[in-house]
Amino acid sequence: MSETEFPDYLDVDYTAGEGEGPEEYASINDKIEKAIEVTRKGLEEYENPVVMWTGGKDSTLTLYFIKEVAEKFDLEVPPTVFIDHFQHFDELHDFVDHWADEWDLDVVYARNEDVGDYVEENGLDPGDDIPIEELSEHNQHHVRNILEYEEDTFPFLLDTYVGNHLLKTVALNDAIEELEADGILSGVRWDEQEARADETFFSPRHDPDIYPPHDRIQPILQFDEPAVWDAFWHFVVPETVESYPDDGYVPETDDDLPEGVEQEDIPVSPKYFAGFRSLGSEISTDKSADKPAWQQDMANTTERAGRAQDKEDLMERLRDLGYM
């Protein structure tokens, strides 16, 4: 499918958000209002949308808006796609399984089974080498022809060029093709990285030589990290947890929750309580501090520190190939 053949039933503005930043949406209510607007447009315009859900705060906030908009305007909650790259924290899998059940979500687990099967059959650990010649034709095509990688092996690590592409992007693109998705709702934010600072609310991905043609629908571009946590503690959690104070409450630790509320009652990953500000790979992601993510110095420290894939030159190349 060429760019001109992308579904003509869509009526979206691909320039919406161009040249903007979080400062254009001054209050939390401004940010939420825009998120609702973009979410509704996405759910109404696309025939086969899906939701990217990582179990992290941004995609969970996006999922919250989708659920709220779907209920208010009598729309369907799309299937959620969880990319299982085989190196997640165990707590993240538990979190996704729990809230998928609580929220009655249809979760599609996208995996590069070819790589996963080789790892399992050969008892590999993260960092062990995988021979390119042992991969399927599909994966070899990506490694040799798309990435133009010339080595005989690559390490089984998420935070590398080849590893990230095969374990995440190829798995995602295969899922998009299988689901015939025309739009992906994702939790990308302008302030996360320079590589995402120029994104628009409706972002085309139409080149069939790189990915199955689709659009990215990005309702929370206008949120910065503090605003994400404000939304959680004053909107998402009070409206999700029956016994939580209606006007919200920001806990200082996991021992500082309102009476009768346990950590597992809250749709916030326990890794954030433990001091992580970004949830990448258990192999390469460390916590930022000993206090919960929302209690840390967000103004003067980096949110995604320690994730090698987020170095700007690598991120630019990965995003060109279909990474989120």
Description:
This protein has 324 residues and is of the alpha/beta class. Helix 1 (28-45) packs across helix 2 (57-72). The protein has helices at 28-45, 57-72, 90-102, 113-121, 137-146, 161-179, 225-240, 270-273, 312-320, and strands spanning 49-52, 80-83, 107-110, 129-131, 153-155, 183-185, 202-205, 214-217. It has one domain (3-224, 306-320): Rossmann fold (3-Layer(aba) Sandwich), CATH 3.40.50. Strand 2, helix 3 and strand 3 form a beta-alpha-beta unit. The longest helix is centred in the middle third of the chain and has 19 residues, at 161-179.
Main features:
8 strands; 9% strand; 6-stranded mixed sheet; 324 residues; two-stranded antiparallel ribbon; Rossmann fold; alpha/beta
In short:
By secondary structure, the protein is an alpha/beta fold. The chain has helices at 28-45, 57-72, 90-102, 113-121, 137-146, 161-179, 225-240, 270-273, 312-320, and strands spanning 49-52, 80-83, 107-110, 129-131, 153-155, 183-185, 202-205, 214-217.
Individual helix count: 9
What is the rounded distance between the termini?
21 Å
Roughly how many Å is the radius of gyration? Answer: 19 Å
- The third-level CATH topology is Rossmann fold
Instruction: Give me the strand/helix succession.
Output: HEHEHEHEHEHEEEHHH
Structural class determined from secondary elements: alpha/beta
Report the principal-axis shape: globular
DSSP E strands, number: 8
| CATH structural architecture | 3-Layer(aba) Sandwich
Give the mean pLDDT: 91
**What portion of the residues fall into strands of 2 or more residues?**
5-15%
**For this structure, what is the CATH homologous superfamily?**
HUPs
CATH class: Alpha Beta
